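Ticket #4471: structure output looks truncated?

Reporter: J.K.
Steps to reproduce: submitted the chain below (177 residues) through the standard prediction queue, then opened the result file.
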Amino acid sequence: MGKFLGAFIMVSALLAGAALYYLQIYGFYEEVDAPADGMMLLPLASSQGEVIPMEGFEAIDADSSPIRYRACFTTPYSLALLTETFQMVEGAQPRNAPSWFECFDAKKIGDELEAGTALTFMSQKNVHFGVDRIVAITSDGRGYAWHELNDCGAKAYDGTIVGEECPPLPQRTAPIE
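Returned output as attached by the reporter:
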């Protein structure tokens, strides 16, 4: 009886581990359609986003977390034009994407940011509460986008009191009875 119980526990643990792996890597992701006009960036002199042209858009997202968004595209705009026109973001680092989403390699993007052959720009503030969309563009026109917690999001998610400079927290709906 002990061998049967031990085998049952081992098989159950393996199945649970496989299910957890699948759900984390594949389960909740969905492909995202390209924005109709192009990728949005915030201009230096305005809080209204401005669309930049793009081609070859690929993106994934998941409803299970506001920071699972990843996108890849190309743009004809040069880094010189972008830096003179749009708000840059300092210190942004891309988050890892699932290995099956091959166009987004966070390590390579990070290496390009460190080398100065790519720069990061603000795309949209508060896409979800406390989450901004960041876009990195390389010197050869490859673009990458991901979501990153802003100061308000970091405070809200770690339990710190959110100050007046943050937008109001979204209202939670009552549980279904």
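Triage note (M.O.): checked the attachment and the full token line is present. The chain has one domain: 28-158.
Status: closed, working as intended.
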